[in-house]
Amino acid sequence: MNRLDGATVAILIESDFVEPEVHYYQRRFAEEGARTRFVTRLWGQPSLTFYGHEFREPLTVDGDLEALDAEGLREIDALIVPSGMVADRLRYSEVAGEPSPAVRLLRHAFALPHVLKGIICHGMWLVSPIAEVVRGRRVTCHNNLISDVRNMGAVYTDQDVVVDGDLVTARTADHCHVFARMMIELIAARRGRRTAGAPRRVAPRRLPARLGPADERHDLARREPAVQERGREGDRRAVPEGMEPAGHGGYTYSDLVAGVITRYDAEQGLVDLRTAEGRTITARLTPTTSAEFLRNLGDPYLDAAGHLRELLTPGRRLFAHGIFYPDGGPASFDAKRLVFVGRRPDEYAFEQPDWWVRQIRELGRFYRRAQFGDDGPVDFADYRTVLRLGGDKADHHVQETDTISRLVYGMSSAYMLTGDEDFLEVAERGTAYLREHMRFVDPDEDVVYWYHGIDVRDGVERKLFTSEFGDDYDAIPMYEQIYALAGPTQFFRVTGDPEVAADIEGTLRLFRRFFRDPERGGYYSHIDPILLSPHHESLGPNRSRKNWNSIGDHAPAYLINLFLGTGDERYADMLEETFDLIVRHMPRDDSPFVQERFHGDWSPDRTWDWQQDRAVVGHNLKISWNLMRMMSIRPKDGYRELAERIGHRMPEVGADLRRGGWYDVVERTLEPGQRVHRFVWHDRKAWWQQEQAILAYQILAALTGQEEFRGRAREAAAFYNAFFLDHDEGGVYFNVLADGTPYLVGTERLKGSHSMSMCHAAELCFLATVYQRLLLDREPLSLWFRPRPDGFPDRVLRVAPDALPPGTVRLDWVEVDGRPYSAFDQEGLTVKLPDAERPVTVRAHLAPR
Predict the structure, then answer these.
(1) pLDDT in tens, 577-613
(2) Residue closest to 802 by CA, chosen among 699, 700, 688
(3) Can you tell me the distance from the alpha carbon of 840 to that of 816, in angstroms, rounded to the nearest whole number?
(4) pLDDT in tens, 377-436
(5) Structure letter (DSSP) for residue 15
(6) CA distances (Å), origin 671, targets 225, 360, 515, 665, 668
(7) Which residues are CB-contacts of 717 (< 8 A; sequence separation ≥ 6)?
(8) Which residues in 32-77 belong to E strands, given as ranges?
């Protein structure tokens, strides 16, 4: 299912429309599942054919706007007035002084808040006869119409897209892509709210997919009755061993089974798989069943079909993708593709010492090639936020600050693991570009602020001061400022650049002075761009709010790395404060999931936009992961207790125990008669949720010694490496379906967005290497640094790879510029840098104690 399934977008049309714009709407809304309906004044004809402005392309329309009454408008999610001469032609009236039918329709639409109004470029002409509908409202338009909209009483805003409640306006037809994106996000959010407030039948057999605005969304696929019936305590409908319930109305369906082999009957070609939910499913091998070994990015296809008799041994983990038939019985599932996670029964390929190092190297090469070419100059003027599936750049000129910052984080991490100077050059130039183009230093307030981004066209750069994302539009969200620091902070760990350190400190002053709540603790999620206040009415639903991101995301994004790089106890104090707040306010008795959104007084906010009373599975895992990291900085019983509680609870409510992998957004609480937390939009699986699961369970396993956690880490890593690596184009997929098939529709086929841009994938590679090598397998690890000798105080470079329990790792040996070096502290994990005039290359070799 798609995000806008069931939605209708009506578009007014007349001659002299802009062909590329209209074609884009036709394609883009359809990609999201919406029905696009063109309407015009038909003048009593069954249909009319109109012609475009530049290419004279024909467009035949049979939708009559005069037949679209108030009742008909209630069935429409959005009404768009496009650019070109459409609006001018549609405002024609036979009677002087009387509004035309199109104007009357637009007036009716403005009276219905549920109808989203979208007006772009010269479309504002159609509003001029009914100026009262935009009086006092914020709008943008073509430069030629600025005086017109001001004469209408509207507030002209110099932005490409402006959202004012149920009105979305855009500057020109050239901005139709960002205009359409905003319309899609808002339609999805509104439909999500309507769904959240609608009454539901008790324990429905299947749920209709509903839509939402976030980057990481899942389709609601059909789940077997036995899986649907799984309860909070894991109780399941009784099903005979080896029997798959035939509850699909007599039709076939393809699906994935992840499990451990318990029996193989070579004569009959039957394999029994025990899933993580405790069920045994029998798979029948067919003459066309293929088999392969798990492979890393950059590895060739490894066929396993010729060795099935030796491979299908009890105890081996296996993915089986195939077809369920409604026959029932032990042979109702035909396995068509098998994926073995290792060559031996006890082997997991992703636990090879260099697995994640090789993967981060391939990721670095992909993004280096996509943004700057294989070996060309690293020029961030050519950087683009939007990358297509194969790494090609889309015609989108906005460079978002946090996507560049995330790329810098990824490249810095890749350098630390590989020592590849090319990755460091990208990180260095990206950091310099951020400082030169995206940074604003306010000398009066003595703070540093980061722009949302810049629009670069034809050598002209326009700053985007406030956020352009639907959830945060026209505000300064804490989330963007936090992730603006992710890359520079990791780069600072490598280099000790004092100018970068000053920027970080300036941003922290911004947080303390304008986002922090000095009375009740924590940080507000948004401030307005004028007064820098979290309480201004312009913030709407984000006014005086706090959320998981504004409190907890400091730690993984930059703050733990900042503490690692400096040892400054002020940062440990800030970490302790944020984790104390998480433990105090986020766990709730009404749900296994934490509460993520709050009012200023820390009372739960269960009305905010798409989230309502809903849980993001990955945020719960992220909390558990970072609480365990905090145990190595300032340990507290409350941190460990909550981390372990989440670790034990999450698989039953957030994981797919039949297929493997982790879900995204679910309802926090169960309604009467329900045993399974319902998906908010769909059951697709985003790559970043898998990252949080892998890292959370690796560190839980390492620090608690509980075998259950080690198993969960392996299950998550197996699913991620089996289905998220794009072996054809490079990089990782944004989303996969519940059965692991890549989901490549709309924006979810892109690879440069703020939630991708190498950051999470590189973070996974870096920390999975650290946890696997140093903590779980007790093997050594080398890291590379390129510090300025005068960059760190007292010329002390700190080389701890992450927040690890004191005494678990020692610094075995050090090289500086390729030669052995002795001035280091084995227990303190520090290197006394030489008194040199230029940066030096430090290789630090760490080993478990």
Answers:
(1) 999 999 999 999 999 999 999 999 999 999 998 999 9
(2) 699
(3) 7
(4) 999 999 999 999 999 998 878 899 999 999 999 999 999 999 999 999 999 999 999 999
(5) S
(6) 18, 43, 36, 16, 10
(7) 348, 350, 694, 768
(8) 35-40, 48-51, 58-61, 63-64
